[in-house]
Specification:
The protein is α+β, with helices and mostly antiparallel strands. The protein has one domain (11-189): VC0467-like (3-Layer(aba) Sandwich). Helices cover 16% and strands 33% of the residues. The protein contains 6 helices and 10 strands, in the order ββββαββββαβαβααα.
């Protein structure tokens, strides 16, 4: 098998033609990507469920909106914490309770006591479930044009208006991708 170039920490932005309703206009942050597969969370799917309703001890540390996000269609009964933790990226070993994914973006151990991390967290999002791909599956979808791969920014994780993230991420691209941000929700109405 050929070596896979890691896309960890980058965003997958759903192409308008992507037919899977789980990923319609989705923006996925890749948390892991290697020859064994890929795992990420959808950043723009807030649910009506408040963080305080399921993880009360973490509720005071989440940003607005302080709801649980649907991270993807896999393992909806599990929770992942993704945070922006500014500071020295070269800390070794990593502090207890989190693992740096890329830049300031980190995975938070939700079993750790929140007070251990409270001072370090810049922002936190809680995701129910995740998006997952088996070996080679994401690469096939990329070849088929289902996703655009773009750089992430720490603010993507904590966007206060996640419903606008798909257009915002595309609009900031310095290529023809910026034009796709204007693609209508329903092209048949044009």
């Amino acid at each position: 098998m050929t070596e896979v170039s890691s896309l960890t920490g980058r965003l997958l932005v759903a192409a308008p033609a992507l037919a899977d309703p789980n990923f319609d206009r989705a923006v996925v942050l890749l948390l892991d990507h290697d020859e064994e597969g890929s795992l990420g969370v959808v950043l723009n799917r807030p649910t009506p469920v408040g963080v305080a309703d399921i993880l009360a001890s973490w509720a005071g540390l989440t940003g607005e909106p302080d709801v649980v996000f649907q991270g993807g269609p896999v393992s909806l009964d599990s929770a992942l914490g993704v945070a922006v933790i500014p500071g020295d990226e070269g800390l070794s070993p990593a502090p207890i309770g989190w693992r740096r994914v890329h830049g300031a973006i980190c995975l938070v151990d939700l079993d750790a006591p929140p007070e251990l991390l409270a001072a370090a967290l810049g922002s936190l999002r809680i995701f129910a479930g995740y998006a997952g791909w088996g070996p080679g599956q994401l690469e096939t979808e990329l070849t088929d044009g289902a996703w655009y791969v773009v750089e992430s920014e720490p603010g993507d994780v904590s966007s206060p208006r996640p419903e606008n993230l798909w257009r915002a991420v595309l609009r900031r691209q310095r290529s023809e991708l910026a034009m796709i941000a204007t693609y209508p929700d329903d092209p048949s109405l044009n």
